[in-house]
Amino acid sequence: MGEEAIRFGILGCAEIARKVSRAISLSPNATLYAIGSRSLEKASKFAASNGFPAHAKVYGSYEAVLDDPDVDAVYVPLPTSLHLHWAVLAAQKKKHLLLEKPVALNVSELDQILEACESNGLQYMDATMWMHHPRTHNMFHFLSDPHHFGRLQSVHATFSYGVSPYFLENDIRVKPDLDGLGTLGDTGWYCVRAILWAANYELPKTARALDKPTYNEAGVILACGASLSWEDDKVATFYCSFLSDMAMDITAMGTKGSLRVHDYVIPNKEKEATFSTSSNSDFVELSIGWAPNPCVHTTLTDLPQEALMVKEFSSLVGAIKFSNSKAEEKWPTISRKTQLVIDAVKASIDNGLQPVQIKD
Amino acid sequence: MGEEAIRFGILGCAEIARKVSRAISLSPNATLYAIGSRSLEKASKFAASNGFPAHAKVYGSYEAVLDDPDVDAVYVPLPTSLHLHWAVLAAQKKKHLLLEKPVALNVSELDQILEACESNGLQYMDATMWMHHPRTHNMFHFLSDPHHFGRLQSVHATFSYGVSPYFLENDIRVKPDLDGLGTLGDTGWYCVRAILWAANYELPKTARALDKPTYNEAGVILACGASLSWEDDKVATFYCSFLSDMAMDITAMGTKGSLRVHDYVIPNKEKEATFSTSSNSDFVELSIGWAPNPCVHTTLTDLPQEALMVKEFSSLVGAIKFSNSKAEEKWPTISRKTQLVIDAVKASIDNGLQPVQIKD
After folding, report:
1. Is the ipTM of this complex over 0.90?
2. Residue A15: which pLDDT band, with cuts at 50, 70 and 90?
3. Which residue from A64, A346, B39, B358 lies 20 to 30 Å from A240 (Cα-Cα)?
4. Between chain A and chain B, how many beta carbons pairs sit less than 8 Å apart?
5. CA distance readout (Å), B325 to A291, B312, B315, B328
C-alpha cells in the first residue's frame, strides 16, 4: 500500500462495519485509518478485532473522526435516521462518503446529502456491494446484448432473509425511529436497484405496491412487494421480506433471451459466483424439450465484492485528491433513482396501494 | 397393451395433438383408436404420420368420433371457443374428456362442461401436462415439508415463448374469435396453475392485473402480469407473454426454505429434469456467503410427462369403466380454480387494473 492509499474513518461499530473493515484491509488502495463510536471502549475493541493497524486512530465520538484532518473518506453504517445529520456533517468536513443503504429516509433527505457532497467536490457512493462484483458486470454485458438478450420485457427481483425472533424484537431495522422503511429500505433497496440495473437505470414511470404488506406492531414493514412500469412496455415486480428464508433472485426476460441469478446480493461463495442465461431458445420437434438449452456462467474473483467496492470508491477519491478529477456522477445518480422508487413504493403502501407516479 | 387399454379419439389435427398422440402410444394403458378432422384427407395424413395403428378409425368429422361406440375417451385440442360445444357433446355421447387448455373462455362455460361430465359419470382432466412429471411430485413434496420449506410466503411464476411474426399474424392464439384470452389463456394458464399448485390449491381471494398489458390490434392480450393475494399473508405474482424469449420459472419462497425451477412447463430435456432448493440458510460469519448452500435435485423419468398424463387419465377412466369407480374430483376441481383466477385477472385487465374478488 503506497502513500496514495485512501484513509478511511468509520462511524460506529455496526455489524456490517466488520465486513467493510475487512474490505478496506483487502483493497490495495485503501487503509483503515480511524474508528469512532459513542463509546471509546467499543471503538477500541472494534479496532482490535477488525484488523485495524496499530497506529489507527480510535475515537470516542463520530465528530472526532470527522475532525481528523487525515481522514480522506468515511464509511457510514449508522441507522438510517441518523444519515442526514452525519452524512451532511461529514461532507461539510470534506470527507468523501461511502454511505450504507438505505441511504436516507426519503429523497428529500438524500438530496441534502448529495448537495453537501457535490458542493464540497466529494465522491459519494452507496454501499450496494453487489454492484461491484465482476459477475454483475458479466450479467450486465449479457443484458446489453441485442442479439442474445434483446429488449428487456420483464424483471422480477427478490430479497429476503429469515430473521430471528430476537431480530424481530430488537434490530434497528424494525424500529420506526431508526430504520423507518423496514424491509423495504433494507432488502427492498436491493430489489429496486436490481430492477433499475436491469433496465439500464431508466427510471420507471409508475410504482404500485402489491397486496398485502406485512407490518410489525410499530407499523414497520416486514414484507411487501411492488410492481413498476415504464413509458414503454417494460414491467417489473419485486418481493422483499424479513419473514421468508434466504432468497436473492433476479429473473430478467428479454425479447431474445433471459437471465437468472439466485444470490445476487451476497453470492453463495465468496470467490466463485454463477448465473444462467438462455438465448433464442425454441422448442424441439414435438415440443418435448428446448434448443438451445440454458447455460450456466461462472465468474471467479480474487477480491470479494466489498473490497472491489472499496477499491472503486478509493480510486475515484484518489483521482479527486491527487489528480483534481471531478466526482463520478454515476453513483449519486443511481442512488437517487433507487431512493425515488423506494419513496414511490412507500407512498403507494401508505395510500392504499394506489399507483404513484415517479418523478425525477 | 391388454384389452383394458383405453381407446382414445382425437378431435382435430392440431400441432399439439401430435405430441399427445405420441403420449397415447407410449402410455401402457391407452391406445390411439380414432382421429377426426373436418377434412378426411387431413385426418388420414395425421394418422399416418403420428403412429396410429393400421386399424385406427379415420373420420372426416368430429361427430363421427363421438358417435363411434368403441371410443372411450376423447382428447380435445380445438381452439378454445369451440370447447363448450364439442366438450359438452362429447360428454353427452359418454366420452371421457381430456381437454386441452385453456379449457374454456370463462368459468360459466367450464361449468357447463364439468356438469356434462359429472352427470354422465365421466372423468374430466385438463391437459396441463407438467402436473404429471415426477419432478412436479418431488417439488410438491418439498413445498409440503414444514421443516425445509415451511409456510408459503410468496410465489412468482413466468411463462413466455418468443413467437414468430407468422404466429403473431396467424395463430389461433392471437385471434379474438378463437382463443380470446390470448397469452393469458395460453401461457398464463400455466402460471396460474403453478401458483395454485404452490399454494396447495387454496384459491386466492383477490387478483389484480399489473401495469401494463400488451395487446394486438384485435385486442388480444400478448403479454400481461398479475398479483394474487390470499386471506392470510401469502402473495403471488406472474408474468406471461408471447413477446419474450422462452422462460418458465417458479420461485416459491417459504418461511424456512425456497424452491426454484426454470423449465416447469416443458423440461429442457425429456428424461431428466432439475429444480433447486434452499433450506434454513443463514449468512456465514461476516455475511460473505451462505450456509448451507442451495441444492440441485434431478428427477429421471422413462415416460415423458405427456405419457404419464395419459396414463393417469386412462387409469381413472379404466377404474370407472371396469370397476365402477367414481370420477376423480381433483382434476375438475383444480381446473375450475385455475379458470376462476384467469377470469378474475381478465376482469381486472378489463376494469382498468382494479382488484377483483375471486369467488368459488
Report:
1. yes
2. very high
3. B358
4. 210
5. 42, 14, 11, 9
